[in-house]
Design a protein that fits this description.
By secondary structure, this protein is an alpha/beta fold. The protein has 2 domains: 268 residues, no CATH class; 178 residues, no CATH class. The protein is built from 13 helices and 18 strands. Strand 14 and strand 15 form a beta hairpin. The structure holds zinc ion.
Length: 495
């Protein structure tokens, strides 16, 4: 009888926007997702798909799973040091109690920054390696909007990263990582990680070219010529850390020279896409003008406008009122807007009750650049405790929420920050999104997968606010490497 392998699973995840007016503490993790050992649901979350995926492998192989705490905080501002040290120590204590282990599987985000640590995930992986020992295998999944450091590649045996943006492949990413760890544990492969620094930062949606074909290409390379896995770290422009920027990760079956070459070739191909990957970004007035023309011409509705920078998924508050104010001034009708984060206004709507009509001040609280609060007489159309939306196989909380109406403009106010992923954000509140002419959503691109199923026209609006959306001019302090677009020729071709 083969001896069962002991496998520890853990997850600590958030994305830190170091420019955000918010701060992140333990309560933010508890509000979003916090599951003590053994309490992780069967459904995955974005960064914790390693749990259900590991359970599946364990059922088919000789694995004993020991689960640690899994937690996620909606992207926000810098994590306070006490919270980071508590979460880190909690995971290490759980791992210590599980020792000896053969395998550690971690679902991380990769862009967590605390008050005193620029590289929380590198720090964690180093500590896990020290504790688990050099014979243990460590597998980790990352979100591509993260930072890659030597501490991470040195201490992990397998790293996989969501390839898609929208991240519709988060389950596949966990399954792929665990499959490679399993093969390694059986001595059938010997993974070797190569990386390449593309020296750039760019928004890289894979729902459009040229990234669509690039992702298809890197997928086709996997499983051939000794290539086990190819991943792209897009980078996260709102996290001011020394490692900020795009990187390629190629894992080969013990072929470092080929891995290095492939990482370089693919990395330079990615670099060649700079400046061409973003969709057309319209100023708010132009986006509404274009949407109005389409609606007036009886084009297929709903039309969707994404507020791409006031995206809570990028760590800002999600309470900007700039587009909403423009819509109200134009007396828009048959429009629905998701969401504005305002716990105080939601509390007032719950107190007023469904059907109440009242003067309400909401939104525009958390930054000097996200617009003024809105003052309006609103009708409370619905209130929902612990409201949620879907994102692929996962369920994402938006907290106690209120649907208010201002003369035909429906607005969802929420209490747990989340970007908009899916039309269920509307339907779960009682709003039929397919009935509306115009939908406004706060999200950079994750909304695209599900909303493209109900809308033919999707417009992207760039609205100034607290998100540092122009890396050429963002006042970074810790990023000191030369990267595009801060310098035009970071690879020194002209030397
Ligand atoms: Zn991401």
């Amino acid at each position: 009888m083969p001896v069962n392998k002991r496998v520890f699973v853990g997850s600590i995840a958030t994305e830190t926007n170091t420019f955000s007016p918010l701060r992140t503490d333990l309560q933010d993790f508890k509000d979003s997702f916090y599951k003590p050992p053994g309490e992780h649901p069967q459904s995955p979350t974005l960064c914790s798909a390693v749990y259900p995926a590991a359970r599946e492998v364990a059922a088919q192989n000789h694995w004993d799973i020991i689960e640690g705490t899994a937690c996620w905080a909606e992207p926000g501002g810098v994590v306070n040091q006490h919270t980071w040290e508590f979460l880190r120590q909690q995971l290490l204590d759980e791992l210590q109690a599980a020792m000896p282990v053969d395998i550690v599987l971690l679902g991380l985000h990769g862009a967590m920054v605390s008050q005193d640590c620029n590289d929380c995930e590198g720090d964690l992986l180093q500590a896990v390696r020290t504790l688990a020992g050099h014979d243990a295998l460590i597998g980790v999944t990352f979100d591509p909007h993260s930072h890659l450091t030597d501490e991470r590649t040195r201490n992990a045996d397998i790293i996989t990263v969501f390839k898609e943006f929208p991240h519709t492949d988060f389950v596949d990413t966990a399954v792929d990582m665990i499959k490679l760890i399993h093969l390694t544990s059986e001595g059938r492969i010997k993974p070797c990680i190569s990386t390449f620094d593309c020296k750039m930062i760019e928004v890289l949606p894979t729902s459009r070219e040229p990234m669509r074909s690039f992702v298809d290409k890197i997928k086709s390379l996997q499983g051939k010529d000794g290539v086990l896995s190819v991943s792209v770290i897009h980078g996260f422009m709102a996290g001011d850390v020394p490692a900020l920027g795009s990187r390629l990760i190629v894992t080969t079956d013990n072929d470092k020279p080929y891995g290095d070459q492939l990482a370089r070739d693919l990395g330079m191909e990615l670099f060649s896409f700079r400046g061409t990957t973003k969709p057309e970004l319209l100023v708010p007035a132009a986006a509404i003008d274009r949407a109005t023309r389409l609606i007036d011409n009886n084009d297929q509705t709903p039309v969707v406008i994404a507020d791409v920078w006031d995206n809570p998924g990028g760590g800002v508050a999600g309470d900007s009122t700039i587009i909403l104010k423009e819509l109200l001034q134009r007396k828009a009708t048959n429009t629905a807007f998701a969401t504005i984060w305002d716990p105080i206004a939601v509390r007032t709507c719950f107190s007023a009750g469904i059907g109440a009509k009242l003067p309400l001040r909401f939104g525009g609280k958390m930054s000097a650049t996200g617009g003024e609060p809105i003052d309006a007489v609103v009708t409370v159309r619905n209130t929902v405790r612990d409201a949620v939306q879907n994102f692929c196989e996962s369920v994402v909380p938006i907290g106690d929420s209120a649907w208010i109406d201002i003369d035909g403009v429906s607005i969802i106010l929420n209490t747990v920050r989340s970007q908009v992923f899916d039309p269920s954000v509307f339907s779960n509140m009682g709003i039929d999104p397919t009935d509306k002419d115009l939908l406004i959503v706060k999200s950079t691109n994750h909304f695209h997968a599900a909303f493209s199923q109900i809308a033919r026209t999707i417009l992207y609006a760039e609205v100034d606010g607290p998100y540092p959306n122009n890396p050429a001019t963002t006042p970074y302090k810790k990023l000191t490497r030369a990267i595009w677009p801060r310098v035009q020729d970071p690879h020194g071709f002209s030397n």
